[in-house]
Design a protein that fits this description.
The structure holds two protein chains of two kinds. By secondary structure, chain A is mostly helical. Chain A folds into two domains: about 40 residues, no CATH class; about 220 residues, MetI-like fold, CATH 1.10.3720.10. In chain A, about 75% of the residues lie in helices and about 0% in strands. The longest helix of chain A is centred in the N-terminal third of the chain and has 34 residues. Chain B starts with a helix and ends with a helix. Chain B is mainly alpha-helical. Chain B has a domain of about 160 residues: MetI-like fold. Chain B has twelve helices and no strands. Classes of the chains: A mainly alpha, B mainly alpha. At the A-B interface, α3, α5, α6, α7 and α9 of A face α1, α3, α4, α5 and α6 of B.
Chain lengths: ~290, ~260
């Protein structure tokens, strides 16, 4: 080898190089997409963040101080997080069993259930939110169902209330909870549960020790999806509650679109952004923790 | 045994309720759109096509539909290109920060649309871009790119790249081998991700609201504005049109790739 001409050894290198080295330039294919998002998504958000801590050319936290000193801001943030938490919780409680039913069903039934999830998922949120304004009317379908079931004596006010908002939002976001959970449930080997049963594990014990840990990645994904969509929803509260329910989104829209009050708007935007980033980071960390390899 | 039976009953009860409430809004929209009444009462007192006729006479509607479909189609195509390249890089390349890159690429899905919209608007004003169509397009590629990257990445990570090598051994040139082997395998991922990307773009309100101008209004923005100005069942007719269009698209997609793949969200 040492006596071979340089050109030949270079040639041999080329042929014998491990595939990893030869394919290295493939990483560059990520550049257009990543570069695009860096420019059209990350850079604008970074500028927004910068603008919120700079006033008249100097770094300052005055915007945040004013924002956080105002009790109204705290009400707005509490509204945002409380309603999102409630929506996520209800979606989880309703979506978890539904994902199992979907995995358990077969043939036509499964196709019908899938269609019932994918179709509403594909229909736009403006359409669905509008439909809920009809469903939630005092003489609407929901009220008649409640009276019919004996849950209430007389029609209750739902439209323009937080309960109505939560109901509508749960409905819009449910597929985003069911489908990620379904995608892990269908991978669970039923023999695992049989094995646990054979080894004397009780149904409850089986659920908490086998089923639940195995479905955690789907639960985390679903919760992260639904929570982040609920904290930032705008169309649904606009239609179901009007302006009276103040969330961060409503505040942002008002200050930028109608009032042109940029300082409150950009502080509120950063707050909402921080919540969303926290959800993404938390879900990434939790997913790693629940990797099946562990 | 009792416990398990109770769990099964509870599971199916919840599922029935979920399915019912998921389909109720769509059914109500269709019912209201064919009602002769203008006050949304159900069941419709009499059938009528008056709201559909009104919809067809709505002059602002068609430019909005054209704009929305155009933006959705172009941004989806761009995203299919950018997203697929990125997915190939992630599955084939070894470089530091790969998982971080994937998180970054799909993160627009979970960022608040209004904030992204405000930030993009200020950024575009800063660099002097005032064209509404181009602004919308730039924003909508941000919306659609995560859908494509996610789904194509999932599909590619299951793909056996030795098949490409096999095709080359059998005499295909490298680009030809890639196209011949990978396109059929990835086609379902292209279709499902393209479909959801297109629908997400068609439906977007929070980013678009900052980027539209008086002459360029996308469909969701026009619909919400119409709803605020004159709340009558015309909007139900438009909505029903969208629902029916979605049903047709999903039926075609089901024929091509199957419902189960569509649900691999």
């Amino acid at each position: 080898m040492s006596t071979a001409p340089a050109s030949l050894s270079a040639r041999a290198d080329l042929v014998l190089a491990p595939p990893r080295r030869r394919l290295q330039p493939v990483a560059l294919l990520a550049l257009p997409g990543a570069g695009y998002l860096a420019l059209a998504f990350a850079a604008p958000l970074a500028l927004l963040l910068m603008a919120s801590v700079i006033s008249e050319g100097r770094p300052t936290l005055a915007g945040y101080r004013t924002f956080l000193a105002d009790s109204f801001s705290w009400t707005v943030m509490a509204n945002t997080i409380r309603s999102a938490g409630l929506i996520t919780l209800i979606c989880l409680v309703a979506g978890y069993p539904a994902a199992f039913a979907l995995a358990r069903a077969a043939g036509l039934l499964q196709a019908a259930l899938l269609a019932a999830l994918v179709l509403p998922l594909s229909v736009g949120v403006v359409v669905k939110a509008f439909a809920w304004t009809i469903l939630l009317r005092s003489d609407g379908v929901v009220n008649r169902a409640l009276v019919g079931l004996g849950a209430v004596d007389a029609p209750v006010r739902l439209l323009f209330t937080e309960s109505g908002l939560v109901l509508g939002a749960v409905n819009v976001f449910l597929p985003f909870m069911v489908l990620p959970i379904f995608s892990v449930v269908k991978l669970i080997d039923p023999r695992l549960l049989d094995a646990a049963a054979t080894l004397g594990s009780s149904p409850l014990h089986r659920f908490f020790r086998v089923t639940l840990p195995l479905t955690m990645p789907g639960v985390i994904a679903g919760v992260a999806f639904v929570f982040s969509m609920s904290v930032s929803m705008y169309v649904i509260p606009t239609l179901l509650m009007g302006d009276r329910f103040k969330t961060l989104s409503v505040l942002i829209a008002r200050s930028f679109l109608f009032m042109r009050d940029r300082s409150v708007g950009s502080t509120a935007s950063v707050m909402l952004l921080l919540i969303a980033v926290a959800v993404v980071v938390a879900s990434a960390l939790l997913t790693r923790r629940w990797q099946p390899s562990r | 045994m009792m416990l398990e039976r109770a769990a099964v009953v509870a599971m199916w009860t919840v599922t029935a309720a979920v399915v019912l409430t998921l389909l109720a809004p769509l059914a109500v929209t269709l019912a209201v759109s064919v009602s002769a009444s203008s006050v949304f009462n159900l069941p419709p007192p009499a059938l009528s096509s008056r709201w559909y006729e009104r919809m067809l006479r709505l002059r602002e509607l068609w430019p909005a539909v054209r704009l929305s479909v155009g933006i959705a189609a172009v941004s989806t195509v761009i995203s299919l290109g950018l997203g697929t390249l990125c997915a190939i890089a992630v599955t084939r390349g070894t470089f530091p920060g790969k998982t971080a890159l994937v998180t970054f690429m799909v993160s627009p899905l979970m960022m608040p649309g209004l904030v992204v919209g405000v930030a993009l608007l200020q950024f575009l004003r800063e660099i002097g871009l005032r064209d509404a169509y181009l602004s919308l397009l730039i924003g909508h590629v941000v919306i659609t790119l995560p859908y494509v990257t996610r789904t194509v990445l999932a599909s590619l990570s299951l793909f056996d790249f030795t098949l490409v090598e096999a095709a080359r051994t059998l005499g295909c040139s490298h680009p030809r081998a890639l196209v011949k082997v990978m396109v059929p395998v990835l086609a379902p991922a292209f279709l499902t991700s393209g479909l959801f990307a297109f629908l997400a773009s068609m439906d977007n309100y929070p980013i678009s609201i900052f980027l539209v101008d008086a002459r360029h209004k996308t469909l969701p923005i026009l619909m919400l504005q119409y709803l605020e100005e004159n709340p009558d069942p015309t909007i139900a007719a438009i909505s029903s049109g969208l629902v029916l269009m979605t049903i047709v698209v999903l039926l075609i997609a089901d024929r091509l790739v199957g419902l189960r793949r569509l649900a691999d969200f």
